[in-house]
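Issue 218. Parser rejects a valid record. Input:
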Amino acid sequence: MIHFIRFNVVGVFGFALQSGALFVLTHGAHPFGYLVATAAAVELAVLNNFVWHQRWTWRDRPSAATGETLRRLAKFNLTNGAVSIAGNLVFMSILVGRLGLPIAGANVASVAACSICNFFLADRIAFYVDKEA
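Output the parser choked on:
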């Protein structure tokens, strides 16, 4: 249960980072389209979240070496990153592109829809430690 709580605490800060990046990317002097901005903002949050999950959420499952940390990063990016980017792009294209909702509100709904799946992927794949190994 502690992993789930910590995962969500990190997620709140990752969401704040993602939301800020999304705002900057869509409201700057040379704004990006909302889908490109969404993908970039999500990847920034994924990388940030990985660092905090490695150092805090799953600190009871430390990496033995740099190579293991890089493998975890790859697994985290291929699981959580893929779900987050694909999920956010699909939800944003529906909520903003088709339904005309504001970007900020659609971003909240998109992140919430992906979060439960991401916890299980992180816990069971990216930060999984085989206790028999």
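Fixed in the parser; the record now loads. The CA atoms of residues 19 and 119 lie 20 Å apart.
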